[in-house]
Amino acid sequence: MEFNVIKKEGGARVGEIKIDDFVVKTPAFVPVATKAAIKSLTAFDIEELMIQMLIANTYHLSLRPGAEIIREFGGIQKFSGIRKPFMSDSGGFQAFSLGKGAILGRSKFEYEIEKKPSKEASIAKISEEGVYFRSIYDKSLHLLSPEKSIEIQHDIGANIILALDECNPPSADYDETKEAAERTERWAKRCLAFHKEKKSSQAIYGIIQGGLFRELRERSAKAITSMDFDGFGIGGSFGRNKMYETLGWLQPFLDKEKPVHLLGIGAIEDIIESVSYGIDSFDCVSPTMIGRAGYILITPESGGNRKNKFRIKITNNRFAGDKSAIDENCDCKMCKRYSKSYLNHLFKAKEFSAYAIASYHNLYFMEKLMNDIRDAIENNRFKRFKEKWLG
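Above: the chain sequence. Below: its structure as C-alpha coordinates.
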Protein backbone atom coordinates (compact mmCIF):
# COMPACT_ATOMS: atom_id res chain seq x y z
CA MET A 1 0.00 0.00 0.00
CA GLU A 2 1.16 3.52 -0.84
CA PHE A 3 -0.23 6.70 0.71
CA ASN A 4 0.49 10.18 -0.63
CA VAL A 5 -0.66 13.53 0.77
CA ILE A 6 -1.55 15.83 -2.13
CA LYS A 7 -2.80 19.02 -0.45
CA LYS A 8 -3.24 20.43 3.05
CA GLU A 9 -5.34 23.21 4.52
CA GLY A 10 -4.65 23.58 8.21
CA GLY A 11 -5.03 20.13 9.75
CA ALA A 12 -7.22 18.87 6.89
CA ARG A 13 -5.58 17.01 4.04
CA VAL A 14 -6.32 15.41 0.69
CA GLY A 15 -4.48 12.23 -0.19
CA GLU A 16 -4.49 9.00 -2.16
CA ILE A 17 -4.29 5.43 -0.95
CA LYS A 18 -2.94 3.21 -3.72
CA ILE A 19 -3.53 -0.43 -2.97
CA ASP A 20 -3.39 -3.32 -5.42
CA ASP A 21 -5.09 -2.02 -8.58
CA PHE A 22 -7.23 0.54 -6.74
CA VAL A 23 -6.84 4.23 -5.86
CA VAL A 24 -8.88 5.67 -2.96
CA LYS A 25 -9.02 9.45 -2.70
CA THR A 26 -9.09 10.73 0.86
CA PRO A 27 -10.82 11.95 2.97
CA ALA A 28 -13.12 9.03 2.16
CA PHE A 29 -16.29 7.60 3.61
CA VAL A 30 -16.26 3.80 3.73
CA PRO A 31 -19.78 2.28 3.77
CA VAL A 32 -20.32 -0.83 5.87
CA ALA A 33 -20.96 -4.05 3.95
CA THR A 34 -21.35 -6.20 7.06
CA LYS A 35 -21.89 -9.53 5.34
CA ALA A 36 -20.17 -8.62 2.05
CA ALA A 37 -23.31 -6.74 1.04
CA ILE A 38 -25.09 -3.46 1.65
CA LYS A 39 -28.69 -4.20 2.54
CA SER A 40 -31.15 -3.60 -0.34
CA LEU A 41 -28.39 -2.66 -2.84
CA THR A 42 -26.68 -4.75 -5.52
CA ALA A 43 -23.06 -4.74 -6.69
CA PHE A 44 -24.27 -2.77 -9.73
CA ASP A 45 -25.69 -0.07 -7.42
CA ILE A 46 -22.46 0.13 -5.44
CA GLU A 47 -20.33 0.53 -8.57
CA GLU A 48 -22.74 3.08 -10.04
CA LEU A 49 -22.56 5.12 -6.82
CA MET A 50 -18.79 5.44 -7.29
CA ILE A 51 -18.20 4.17 -3.75
CA GLN A 52 -14.44 4.00 -3.30
CA MET A 53 -14.07 1.33 -0.62
CA LEU A 54 -16.20 -0.86 1.64
CA ILE A 55 -15.63 -2.45 5.04
CA ALA A 56 -16.79 -5.99 5.78
CA ASN A 57 -17.36 -7.62 9.14
CA THR A 58 -14.93 -10.36 10.13
CA TYR A 59 -17.10 -11.66 12.98
CA HIS A 60 -20.16 -12.28 10.82
CA LEU A 61 -18.34 -13.56 7.74
CA SER A 62 -16.28 -16.01 9.79
CA LEU A 63 -19.49 -17.53 11.16
CA ARG A 64 -21.58 -17.34 7.99
CA PRO A 65 -20.71 -18.38 5.28
CA GLY A 66 -17.27 -19.06 6.76
CA ALA A 67 -13.94 -17.49 5.79
CA GLU A 68 -12.78 -20.69 4.09
CA ILE A 69 -15.63 -20.47 1.55
CA ILE A 70 -14.68 -16.88 0.70
CA ARG A 71 -11.04 -17.96 0.36
CA GLU A 72 -12.03 -20.72 -2.08
CA PHE A 73 -13.68 -18.08 -4.29
CA GLY A 74 -10.42 -16.13 -4.36
CA GLY A 75 -11.39 -13.43 -1.90
CA ILE A 76 -14.25 -11.14 -1.06
CA GLN A 77 -14.36 -9.26 -4.39
CA LYS A 78 -14.88 -12.46 -6.38
CA PHE A 79 -17.24 -13.89 -3.78
CA SER A 80 -19.46 -10.79 -3.67
CA GLY A 81 -19.07 -9.61 -7.26
CA ILE A 82 -18.26 -6.13 -5.91
CA ARG A 83 -15.25 -4.79 -7.80
CA LYS A 84 -14.13 -2.39 -5.12
CA PRO A 85 -11.37 -2.44 -2.51
CA PHE A 86 -12.41 -3.75 0.88
CA MET A 87 -11.34 -3.17 4.44
CA SER A 88 -12.16 -5.79 7.06
CA ASP A 89 -12.45 -5.17 10.77
CA SER A 90 -10.88 -7.49 13.33
CA GLY A 91 -14.18 -8.92 14.60
CA GLY A 92 -13.32 -7.95 18.16
CA PHE A 93 -15.92 -5.23 18.61
CA GLN A 94 -18.72 -7.59 17.60
CA ALA A 95 -17.40 -10.36 19.84
CA PHE A 96 -17.47 -7.89 22.75
CA SER A 97 -20.61 -5.92 21.94
CA LEU A 98 -22.84 -8.89 21.11
CA GLY A 99 -22.23 -10.02 24.68
CA LYS A 100 -24.21 -8.13 27.30
CA GLY A 101 -20.97 -7.18 29.00
CA ALA A 102 -20.29 -4.52 26.39
CA ILE A 103 -23.22 -2.63 27.88
CA LEU A 104 -22.94 -3.61 31.53
CA GLY A 105 -19.23 -2.94 31.92
CA ARG A 106 -16.13 -5.06 32.18
CA SER A 107 -16.81 -6.37 35.69
CA LYS A 108 -19.90 -8.13 34.33
CA PHE A 109 -18.27 -9.09 31.02
CA GLU A 110 -17.07 -12.48 32.25
CA TYR A 111 -18.98 -15.60 31.34
CA GLU A 112 -18.32 -19.13 32.54
CA ILE A 113 -17.76 -20.61 29.11
CA GLU A 114 -17.95 -24.20 30.32
CA LYS A 115 -21.56 -23.69 31.35
CA LYS A 116 -24.47 -24.11 29.03
CA PRO A 117 -25.17 -20.70 27.46
CA SER A 118 -28.44 -19.02 28.26
CA LYS A 119 -30.20 -15.96 26.91
CA GLU A 120 -29.58 -14.17 30.20
CA ALA A 121 -25.83 -14.73 30.25
CA SER A 122 -23.18 -12.61 28.62
CA ILE A 123 -21.60 -14.53 25.76
CA ALA A 124 -18.01 -13.27 25.78
CA LYS A 125 -14.93 -13.61 27.95
CA ILE A 126 -11.70 -11.68 27.46
CA SER A 127 -8.34 -13.18 28.33
CA GLU A 128 -4.75 -12.57 27.24
CA GLU A 129 -5.23 -15.40 24.77
CA GLY A 130 -8.06 -13.60 23.00
CA VAL A 131 -11.85 -13.40 23.20
CA TYR A 132 -13.95 -16.47 23.85
CA PHE A 133 -17.43 -15.94 22.52
CA ARG A 134 -20.51 -17.90 21.56
CA SER A 135 -21.94 -17.48 18.09
CA ILE A 136 -25.14 -15.44 17.86
CA TYR A 137 -26.33 -17.97 15.30
CA ASP A 138 -25.96 -21.32 17.06
CA LYS A 139 -24.24 -20.56 20.43
CA SER A 140 -21.16 -22.57 19.36
CA LEU A 141 -17.97 -21.64 21.21
CA HIS A 142 -15.15 -19.79 19.43
CA LEU A 143 -11.83 -18.19 20.33
CA LEU A 144 -10.89 -15.01 18.50
CA SER A 145 -7.19 -14.57 19.16
CA PRO A 146 -4.99 -11.96 17.46
CA GLU A 147 -3.58 -14.68 15.21
CA LYS A 148 -7.01 -16.11 14.41
CA SER A 149 -8.41 -12.68 13.56
CA ILE A 150 -5.59 -12.05 11.08
CA GLU A 151 -5.91 -15.57 9.63
CA ILE A 152 -9.62 -15.04 9.01
CA GLN A 153 -8.96 -11.66 7.40
CA HIS A 154 -6.30 -13.22 5.18
CA ASP A 155 -8.90 -15.77 4.05
CA ILE A 156 -11.51 -13.05 3.44
CA GLY A 157 -8.94 -11.29 1.29
CA ALA A 158 -9.71 -7.65 2.13
CA ASN A 159 -7.17 -5.16 0.83
CA ILE A 160 -6.80 -3.50 4.25
CA ILE A 161 -7.15 -5.48 7.47
CA LEU A 162 -7.28 -4.34 11.10
CA ALA A 163 -5.41 -5.61 14.14
CA LEU A 164 -7.46 -7.05 17.00
CA ASP A 165 -8.05 -4.55 19.79
CA GLU A 166 -10.04 -4.47 23.00
CA CYS A 167 -12.79 -1.87 22.95
CA ASN A 168 -14.06 -0.76 26.35
CA PRO A 169 -17.60 0.41 27.03
CA PRO A 170 -17.82 4.19 27.68
CA SER A 171 -18.52 3.48 31.35
CA ALA A 172 -15.10 1.87 31.89
CA ASP A 173 -12.97 3.50 34.57
CA TYR A 174 -9.27 4.38 34.33
CA ASP A 175 -7.93 1.02 35.51
CA GLU A 176 -10.18 -0.97 33.17
CA THR A 177 -9.30 1.27 30.24
CA LYS A 178 -5.58 1.07 31.01
CA GLU A 179 -5.73 -2.72 31.10
CA ALA A 180 -7.58 -2.80 27.76
CA ALA A 181 -5.17 -0.35 26.08
CA GLU A 182 -2.14 -2.32 27.25
CA ARG A 183 -3.68 -5.57 26.04
CA THR A 184 -4.47 -3.90 22.70
CA GLU A 185 -0.76 -3.03 22.41
CA ARG A 186 0.31 -6.62 23.11
CA TRP A 187 -2.29 -7.98 20.69
CA ALA A 188 -1.10 -5.50 18.03
CA LYS A 189 2.43 -6.94 18.23
CA ARG A 190 1.05 -10.46 17.84
CA CYS A 191 -1.16 -9.45 14.89
CA LEU A 192 1.74 -7.77 13.14
CA ALA A 193 4.11 -10.69 13.74
CA PHE A 194 1.60 -13.25 12.42
CA HIS A 195 0.77 -11.06 9.41
CA LYS A 196 4.44 -10.68 8.45
CA GLU A 197 5.14 -14.38 9.02
CA LYS A 198 2.45 -15.28 6.48
CA LYS A 199 3.93 -12.78 3.99
CA SER A 200 0.53 -11.41 3.06
CA SER A 201 0.39 -8.51 0.60
CA GLN A 202 -2.60 -7.01 2.42
CA ALA A 203 -2.10 -3.70 4.24
CA ILE A 204 -2.64 -3.78 8.00
CA TYR A 205 -3.74 -1.00 10.38
CA GLY A 206 -3.03 -0.87 14.11
CA ILE A 207 -5.73 0.45 16.44
CA ILE A 208 -5.26 3.22 19.00
CA GLN A 209 -7.32 2.88 22.17
CA GLY A 210 -7.29 4.57 25.59
CA GLY A 211 -10.88 5.61 26.10
CA LEU A 212 -11.61 9.05 27.55
CA PHE A 213 -8.25 9.42 29.29
CA ARG A 214 -5.61 11.66 27.69
CA GLU A 215 -2.62 9.90 29.24
CA LEU A 216 -3.84 6.50 28.00
CA ARG A 217 -4.68 7.80 24.51
CA GLU A 218 -1.26 9.38 24.11
CA ARG A 219 0.49 6.29 25.45
CA SER A 220 -1.47 4.05 23.09
CA ALA A 221 -0.75 6.34 20.12
CA LYS A 222 2.99 6.32 20.84
CA ALA A 223 3.04 2.52 21.17
CA ILE A 224 0.92 1.69 18.12
CA THR A 225 2.53 4.24 15.78
CA SER A 226 5.99 2.93 16.72
CA MET A 227 5.07 -0.42 15.13
CA ASP A 228 5.41 -1.17 11.43
CA PHE A 229 1.74 -0.80 10.48
CA ASP A 230 0.65 0.56 7.10
CA GLY A 231 -1.91 2.87 8.71
CA PHE A 232 -3.75 3.45 11.94
CA GLY A 233 -7.30 3.32 13.22
CA ILE A 234 -8.72 5.27 16.15
CA GLY A 235 -11.19 3.20 18.11
CA GLY A 236 -13.32 3.54 21.20
CA SER A 237 -16.60 5.03 22.30
CA PHE A 238 -16.90 8.71 23.18
CA GLY A 239 -19.39 11.54 23.02
CA ARG A 240 -19.07 14.10 20.21
CA ASN A 241 -17.37 16.89 22.16
CA LYS A 242 -15.05 14.41 23.83
CA MET A 243 -14.21 12.88 20.47
CA TYR A 244 -12.93 16.18 19.09
CA GLU A 245 -10.90 16.70 22.24
CA THR A 246 -9.45 13.20 21.88
CA LEU A 247 -8.49 13.82 18.25
CA GLY A 248 -6.73 16.97 19.39
CA TRP A 249 -4.72 14.94 21.92
CA LEU A 250 -3.70 12.43 19.26
CA GLN A 251 -2.71 14.82 16.46
CA PRO A 252 0.92 15.30 17.58
CA PHE A 253 1.50 11.56 17.88
CA LEU A 254 0.10 10.34 14.55
CA ASP A 255 2.45 9.39 11.73
CA LYS A 256 1.95 12.13 9.13
CA GLU A 257 3.09 9.79 6.34
CA LYS A 258 0.43 7.15 6.98
CA PRO A 259 -3.38 7.19 6.68
CA VAL A 260 -5.61 7.47 9.75
CA HIS A 261 -9.05 5.85 9.91
CA LEU A 262 -11.73 6.84 12.45
CA LEU A 263 -13.80 3.78 13.29
CA GLY A 264 -17.59 3.84 13.48
CA ILE A 265 -18.13 7.55 12.75
CA GLY A 266 -20.71 8.64 10.17
CA ALA A 267 -22.60 11.75 11.37
CA ILE A 268 -22.19 14.66 8.95
CA GLU A 269 -20.95 17.13 11.55
CA ASP A 270 -18.53 14.56 13.01
CA ILE A 271 -16.99 13.84 9.62
CA ILE A 272 -16.54 17.49 8.68
CA GLU A 273 -15.08 18.39 12.08
CA SER A 274 -12.82 15.33 12.19
CA VAL A 275 -11.36 16.10 8.77
CA SER A 276 -9.95 19.23 10.44
CA TYR A 277 -7.86 16.93 12.64
CA GLY A 278 -6.29 15.10 9.71
CA ILE A 279 -8.57 12.05 9.59
CA ASP A 280 -8.36 10.34 6.20
CA SER A 281 -11.24 7.86 6.26
CA PHE A 282 -14.38 6.95 8.17
CA ASP A 283 -16.70 3.96 8.30
CA CYS A 284 -20.24 3.76 9.63
CA VAL A 285 -23.46 1.87 9.01
CA SER A 286 -25.47 5.04 9.73
CA PRO A 287 -26.41 6.27 6.21
CA THR A 288 -28.03 3.01 5.15
CA MET A 289 -29.36 2.09 8.60
CA ILE A 290 -31.19 5.40 9.04
CA GLY A 291 -32.23 5.24 5.39
CA ARG A 292 -34.07 1.99 6.02
CA ALA A 293 -35.79 3.72 8.95
CA GLY A 294 -37.04 6.47 6.63
CA TYR A 295 -34.45 9.19 7.27
CA ILE A 296 -33.22 10.99 4.16
CA LEU A 297 -29.93 12.91 4.22
CA ILE A 298 -30.20 16.42 2.82
CA THR A 299 -28.01 19.45 2.18
CA PRO A 300 -28.20 22.53 4.44
CA GLU A 301 -30.08 24.42 1.70
CA SER A 302 -32.88 21.85 1.76
CA GLY A 303 -33.62 22.37 5.46
CA GLY A 304 -33.74 19.43 7.84
CA ASN A 305 -35.90 18.69 10.82
CA ARG A 306 -35.73 20.47 14.18
CA LYS A 307 -33.45 17.83 15.68
CA ASN A 308 -31.06 17.40 12.77
CA LYS A 309 -30.59 19.88 9.93
CA PHE A 310 -29.01 17.23 7.72
CA ARG A 311 -31.99 14.91 7.40
CA ILE A 312 -35.75 14.62 7.14
CA LYS A 313 -38.11 11.84 8.23
CA ILE A 314 -39.80 10.97 4.95
CA THR A 315 -42.59 8.99 6.67
CA ASN A 316 -43.97 12.16 8.31
CA ASN A 317 -47.52 12.91 7.20
CA ARG A 318 -46.50 16.35 5.88
CA PHE A 319 -44.75 14.61 2.97
CA ALA A 320 -47.77 12.49 1.96
CA GLY A 321 -48.79 14.90 -0.83
CA ASP A 322 -45.43 16.62 -1.41
CA LYS A 323 -44.70 16.67 -5.15
CA SER A 324 -41.14 17.97 -4.79
CA ALA A 325 -38.07 15.80 -5.31
CA ILE A 326 -36.74 13.75 -2.42
CA ASP A 327 -33.94 16.35 -2.15
CA GLU A 328 -34.31 19.21 -4.61
CA ASN A 329 -30.59 20.00 -4.29
CA CYS A 330 -29.43 16.47 -5.11
CA ASP A 331 -28.77 15.17 -8.62
CA CYS A 332 -28.79 11.44 -7.88
CA LYS A 333 -31.06 9.32 -10.06
CA MET A 334 -33.49 8.70 -7.18
CA CYS A 335 -34.03 12.41 -6.57
CA LYS A 336 -34.42 13.05 -10.30
CA ARG A 337 -37.19 10.47 -10.59
CA TYR A 338 -39.09 10.17 -7.30
CA SER A 339 -41.10 12.61 -5.21
CA LYS A 340 -41.27 12.87 -1.44
CA SER A 341 -44.90 11.80 -1.69
CA TYR A 342 -44.09 8.59 -3.54
CA LEU A 343 -41.28 7.62 -1.17
CA ASN A 344 -43.55 8.40 1.79
CA HIS A 345 -46.09 6.00 0.26
CA LEU A 346 -43.52 3.24 -0.31
CA PHE A 347 -42.39 3.32 3.31
CA LYS A 348 -45.93 3.27 4.64
CA ALA A 349 -46.77 0.40 2.29
CA LYS A 350 -43.62 -1.40 3.51
CA GLU A 351 -42.38 -1.85 -0.04
CA PHE A 352 -38.78 -3.11 -0.20
CA SER A 353 -38.00 -0.55 -2.90
CA ALA A 354 -38.30 2.18 -0.23
CA TYR A 355 -35.19 0.85 1.51
CA ALA A 356 -33.28 0.67 -1.77
CA ILE A 357 -34.20 4.23 -2.81
CA ALA A 358 -33.34 5.72 0.58
CA SER A 359 -30.09 3.77 0.92
CA TYR A 360 -28.99 4.68 -2.61
CA HIS A 361 -29.66 8.38 -2.07
CA ASN A 362 -27.99 8.48 1.35
CA LEU A 363 -24.81 6.84 0.04
CA TYR A 364 -24.79 9.17 -2.98
CA PHE A 365 -25.11 12.06 -0.53
CA MET A 366 -22.10 10.79 1.45
CA GLU A 367 -19.95 10.35 -1.66
CA LYS A 368 -20.88 13.84 -2.86
CA LEU A 369 -20.09 15.27 0.59
CA MET A 370 -16.63 13.68 0.63
CA ASN A 371 -15.94 14.84 -2.93
CA ASP A 372 -16.92 18.41 -1.96
CA ILE A 373 -14.69 18.22 1.13
CA ARG A 374 -11.72 17.14 -1.00
CA ASP A 375 -12.45 19.88 -3.53
CA ALA A 376 -12.66 22.51 -0.77
CA ILE A 377 -9.30 21.49 0.71
CA GLU A 378 -7.62 21.43 -2.70
CA ASN A 379 -8.84 24.98 -3.34
CA ASN A 380 -8.15 26.34 0.17
CA ARG A 381 -11.87 26.71 0.87
CA PHE A 382 -12.32 24.10 3.59
CA LYS A 383 -12.70 26.64 6.39
CA ARG A 384 -15.51 28.35 4.49
CA PHE A 385 -17.04 24.97 3.59
CA LYS A 386 -17.04 23.99 7.25
CA GLU A 387 -18.68 27.27 8.29
CA LYS A 388 -21.37 26.85 5.62
CA TRP A 389 -22.26 23.35 6.81
CA LEU A 390 -21.75 23.64 10.55
CA GLY A 391 -22.30 27.34 11.21
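The first helix runs from residue 43 to 48.
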